[in-house]
Every structure is written in C-alpha cells, then in structure tokens.
Design brief:
This protein has about 250 residues and is mostly helical. It is about 65% helix and about 0% strand. Helix 4 runs antiparallel to helix 5 (about 65-70), helix 7 (about 95-105) runs antiparallel to helix 13 and helix 10 (about 150-160) crosses helix 11.
C-alpha cells in the first residue's frame, strides 16, 4: 500500500486513530525510499514491534507510532499482501509495464526495478480510489498531518536507534516534506509524492509527474471493481495479525 492506503488500514483497525498511527504507518518507508546507510530493512522497516516495546516502556501515550509501523510492515502488516495483489492482476503485467515505463523512463534498462514497481503502482490505484471515494478520511488525515511533531519524532527515533538526531531529522524531512495536506488531496499531488520518494530507491527512479498521473488513473480503473474487497482483505488480515498487541 501507499500513503493513503496504509493510514486507511490503521483508521479501520485502531479506534483511537490519531497522528501517531498516521505517521507510524508512513515511517517504515525511511527504508528503502530514502537514500542512506543509517537504517536497514530488519532494524527499521520491520522494526515496528521493537518501536512498540520501546514506546510501551517509555512513552506509552504515543505507542500508536509503533502500531502504525507494524500495520505497514511485512511481518504483521499490509506489505504481506503485495504478492497477493500482483497475482490478482498478473494478466495485466504487460500493459502495466508500459504505463510504468512511460512514467519512469529510466527503468526501461533496469528490469529488476521495473518488476518491483508492479505492486507499487497497483497500490497507487487503490490510493486513487480512496481519494475518490473516502472524502471524510482524506479530510481527517489532512488535519492530522498538522499535528505531527517532527521534533518529538526525530528525538524518539534517535533515542531508540541510537543514531545521530541531525541525520534522523534529515531523513524525516525527505520522507515527510512531500506528504502535505495539499498533496494528499489530489492525484497530481500523489504523483508528486511518488516522484519525490521514488528517487531514493536503488534505481533512482526519474518519475515524470504527468505520465505518472496517467499511470495512476489507469491503475485506479484497473482495480475499480475490486479495490474495496482488496482493502477489506488487508484490513481483516492486519487486524488479526495485530490482535495480540491491541
């Protein structure tokens, strides 16, 4: 899932959904979308449970950050369903590949990266459907973005990981700067978000926003008849996986 889908899963699961769940659902993307050597897949992208234990012990009032991270990751969260959505639309891979290359021309010479974007773009299709069909949710997360305290966030991440806070501040800025209320409110804004975060991937994606908008709209149309079932499947699965922690 992406920057609307992950928070939506959290909103459906956590009755007290707030800015901590929201930002927690985005934080795993500090790896691999941000170019650095500070955090890793194991200690960060899949580090939600460790974050939850840390927060439970020291700052229980904001443990939603850890829960949001866990709801995103592969161990307990929505990323476990990446393969499922790829298999569901496997017969569309050739046409999808054309759309992805149009939006990201430098991937034409990087087949591994191109293959890896299949689920990313399908999930963007789901995000566009959320944008079109869940206006109250979009308004909710727009409001919550203004409540995110980056200073608080960088301090606790630096404390938990024992990493330099200045470097954590830099990484957070790269991830969160594009995630504005305005960008989260329209499809061109979503394409801009993708342009900004995808350039940190190993293939250094060079996303063209107009073509990316076209690709996102294509993916939204592709999932139009099934996106609600897909979201329900993810929500039910993640809720069950997190049951012991809620």
């Amino acid at each position: 899932m992406n920057y609307l889908g992950h928070p939506f899963v959290c909103k459906e699961i956590f009755e007290d959904f707030n800015q901590y769940h929201l930002v927690g659902s985005w934080l795993p993307d500090l790896w691999p979308f941000i170019d650095h050597k500070v955090l890793t897949y194991d200690n960060w992208h899949e580090g939600g449970e460790k974050m939850l234990r840390f927060l439970d012990h020291k700052y229980p009032e904001i443990k939603g950050i850890g829960l949001g991270m866990m709801a995103h990751g592969y161990t307990y969260g929505a990323d476990r369903f990446n393969r499922e959505i790829e298999e569901r639309y496997a017969d569309q891979r050739d046409e999808m590949t054309k759309k992805i290359v149009s939006a990201t021309p430098n991937l034409v010479t990087q087949p591994k990266g191109l293959e890896g974007r299949f689920h990313n773009f399908l999930w963007w299709g789901v995000d566009v459907q959320l944008l079109r069909n869940e206006p109250s949710f979009i308004k909710q997360i727009q409001n919550l973005t203004t409540d995110i305290d980056r200073s608080e966030l960088s301090g606790l991440i630096a404390e938990m990981t024992n990493k330099d806070r200045i470097e954590i501040d830099r990484l957070l800025s790269q991830l969160l700067d594009p995630l504005t209320a305005q960008n989260l409110s329209n499809i061109r804004g979503l394409a801009y978000i993708w342009q900004q975060v995808a350039k940190g991937l190993p293939e250094r994606d060079q996303v063209l926003v107009p073509q990316c908008v076209d690709a996102f709209e294509y993916c939204a149309d592709l999932v139009a008849d099934e996106w609600e079932d897909i979201v329900e499947l993810v929500v039910d699965g993640v809720r069950q996986n997190l049951k012991q922690f809620i």
